[in-house]
Amino acid sequence: MEQYICNACGRKYEVTRSRWKCECGGMLDLDKAAVTVRPETWTKFPNSMFRYADSMPFECSGIWQQVTMGEGLTPLLPLDGTTPDVYVKVDYMMPTLSFKDRGAAVLIAKAKALGAAKVIADSSGNAGTSIASYSARAGIECDVYLSDTTSQKKMAQVKAHGANVREIPGSREAVAAAAQQAVADEGVFYASHVYNPYFYEGTKTYAYEIFEACGGAPDTLIIPAGNGTLLLGAYYSFKELLDSRLIDRLPRIIAVQAANVAPLALAFEKGDKAATPVEGKGTLAEGIAIAAPARSKQILEAVRETNGEFITIEEHEIHSARTALAAKGYYVEVTSAANYAAHLKYDRAPGETVVIPLCGAGMKSD
Ligand SMILES: [Zn+2]
């Protein structure tokens, strides 16, 4: 049975409803048996990302089946007819229209397995809508803490699922602090896509799908980096594929930040092991506007270990990228356009295969 293990001090804890960080304040990872990825098992599961369930720490058999809504197995398509080797992964084709459903489906299945009657989450929007949706599916009460500047459409989506919206003024960090205080006061499960490592067990499937569709690893992954929920999941699963000898090298991770809120890019440039919180200037890319990313050490390690780099995007580049992508048929939310803007700035070698995620649907932006 897996345990939590502190990323800072190594202390281990039983997985319970109330534990979400170490006594030392460190982030918790999962301490589990090494995963051996066995593609021959993938055919016995239904057409969703749970075809990779054998690679997830699920001993709660029968639980995810009650929670799943068919998330995952999103299309990997050519960007357009003129750029061979560049692909988009259309991850907005999901039950709540964003890639966060990968993590939320696993996290809420785990909450249900632990017998949680209520969860609390905080989010810049998409994770909140996803947690609200899966909680409704699982019959679990849900409070979602959001900034009072969150897109009205995302807020309406959360409310539609019957979740209680708690609007908090101030920064993304103030929203997280309010949620964490409520978790402590009420003693309930913290369904955090940042702190809870089960979320990454879900986002790992993004990379399994790319591996399966490509028959191997692409050269390069362009991935947004706010709290690193997709980036870390993708990194862990390609590591598992490497450890299972199914690929012979890790794809390079090109991490994308908005120039206005770029603590990770700054730390990378300076050679720092962890990010120093920045005073964000605000960005259109609300989904990656994270001034103090809690897992910065792990994100920086992942980018460095894959020989990757950071690309920062200016505000005007986000809008023009969104328009250019829509002209190719793909209508994404504003934050997701930053990924395509990064591709436009990236110096791609001839024949280099690149995968760009389209993380959220265009209808989500106000
Ligand atoms: Zn610790």
Strand and helix order:
EEEHEEHEHEHEHEHEHEHHEHHE
Mean pLDDT: 95
Write down the Rg. Answer: 19 Å
Number of strands: 13
**What would CATH call the class of the domain at 76-95 and 203-364?**
Alpha Beta
Low-confidence stretches: none
Helix share bin: 25-40%
CATH topology of the domain at 76-95 and 203-364: Rossmann fold
Count of DSSP H/I helices: 11
Distance between the termini: 44 Å
CATH architecture of the domain at 76-95 and 203-364: 3-Layer(aba) Sandwich
Cofactors, ions and other ligands in the entry: zinc ion
- Largest β sheet strand count, sense and barrel closure: 6 strands, mixed
Order of strands, main sheet, comes to 4-5-13-10-11-12
List the helices and strands and how they pair.
Layout: E1 3-6, E2 12-13, E3 28-31, H1 64-67, E4 76-78, E5 86-89, H2 100-113, E6 118-123, H3 126-138, E7 141-147, H4 152-160, E8 164-168, H5 172-186, E9 189-190, H6 198-214, E10 220-224, H7 229-243, E11 252-258, H8 263-270, H9 296-305, E12 309-313, H10 315-327, H11 334-345, E13 354-357
Helix pairs in contact: 2-3, 2-6, 3-4, 6-7, 10-11
The structure holds zinc ion.
